[in-house]
Structure prediction request, 359 residues.
Amino acid sequence: MKILVNALSGIGDAIMFSPALALLKKHIPDSQIDMLVMFKQVEEIYTNNPNVNNIYFIDFVNQSKLKSLNQVLKLRKNKYDASINVYPANRREYNLIQYLIGARQKIATRYNHYSKSNWDFLNNKLNQEVKNRHNVLENYDLIKFLAPNAQENELGYYYIKIEIEDEVFAQKYFFDNLLHDKFVVGFHAGSATFKRHINKRWAAKKYIALAKELHKKHYAQIILFGTETDVNEKIYKEIKSFAHLPKTSTMMQSLALLERCKLLICNDAALMHLGAGLKVPTVAIFAYTNYKELYPWKNNHIIVRKELDCSPCFFNSPRPVQCIYTGEEEFKCIKTIAVSEVLEACEKLIEEIPRNVKT
Prediction:
């Protein structure tokens, strides 16, 4: 069987498909599973995945629609038996791409919100979205169309493989910066900005205050991750005596550094899921997104969030997030999370971390 996985919606969404992918290959071992991506970082992460035969990158965002269409129609010539739109992919463009590829079985999700306007009728195998069900399990439901005997309890971890050259890069960075025997904490203070998701970010000034507390109590060294240079530089400027802002040329170099961290503190963003794949204990700061659907899968973690009547209010749709509050109270779900609350979560996880570092 020839299967195409359309992992188009983002880095975090893509890595959350990897447990279902492994299960699909396990139950259909003779299958050829290819992957279509539109972000280079997703291509990097899946390049070494043993369950993927071929990865096709199409730069839908930056190139002409005509060029993209020609590349999609070229994929059609592969004559796939089935194609799967990775959950979540609630945009009409994704369903149109899947339709144009022309697999006999077009597998996707029927979303609880705005699904019909996203042309889900272009697919012939639809699984109904379930509220409060983790993305990994939603993806599992999709592969069940092709592997009906697959069992939920077979789902494993996210798959991330760090190659030796990236390990060497991280090892050198740690030795050059005298981090090899230190308590190193990763910060990711950024997030995506589309759909107004910049409002998922816990304030940089609070990350700064948290870093100072962790350094004072645990002599922590902070590594700042992410491409959000404005946020990272603002934080680095205030804590540069014990902070590090590494220059990396690939996503995998960053992940090799992250793997060496004792703790990750982050917003709800892709790095949270990548940290879970590397089994880094994580304090995840959530705003209006649904932690029950997005928590760090099979990883030691603590969620910090506000239990408001209105939250979580964001659901999978192309529409930007909207807040019922205005002015200073807008997005108070993230604004009212105190440094002390995040620090308390950090302390709980730190108690479980082996004391093999200098303090």
Remarks:
- The first strand starts at residue 2 and ends at 7.
